[in-house]
Sequence to fold (197 residues):
Amino acid sequence: MSAPAACAAAVVLAAGEGKRFGGPKLLALLDGKPLVQHVIDAANASSLSPVILVTGFEGERLAGAVSLGRAAALANPDYRSGQASSLIAGIGALDAADAAVVLLGDQPRVTAALLDALVARQRATGAAAVASSWNGRRMPPTLLHRDLWPAVLVLTGDVGAREVLAERDDVAVVEVTGRLGALDDIDTQEDHARLSR
Fold:
């Protein structure tokens, strides 16, 4: 059991090269704005604070193409080594937070309601982590209590929070339905076309 998180931050991972997409997918437009803008907007509309946007591939272009609002952009110069380096950069930038909700920049249907629900579930259960569950699968966004951060900070390569949670039995879950949004992630042009319809 972990202590209830009094203060939870957001870490938006937006450093990838979009190789399967064929370019900087986070800037691809959906409903008239970049994919990653939807995620930033959800984080900004939630109770999470601070909001950290971790950039990498074409980071200056990405940061210049979005409205950060109260989010702060953080460049990860080591982004080519894989997702772990961006997760570490984001967690490492947090001082006062008791927990971090890790979001992916390519999940444009995530909502502020879901992010706040993850925090509420952690406070109610004292779980070390709270994962989102969609269509029977655990997936990001995921809340990681500060107690787990040491395990995060030693990750390497193209892995994320799933590696830390794989063997744990103290992971709570929030079922994503209705007003909590949807967790489609966009990896390919086909994904983008499907979600755009």
Q: What stands out?
A: The beta strands are 8-14, 29-30, 33-34, 51-55, 72-75, 99-104, 129-134, 137-145, 171-175. Residues 112-125 form the longest helix (14 residues). The CA atoms of residues 91 and 149 lie 7 Å apart. The radius of gyration is 15 Å.
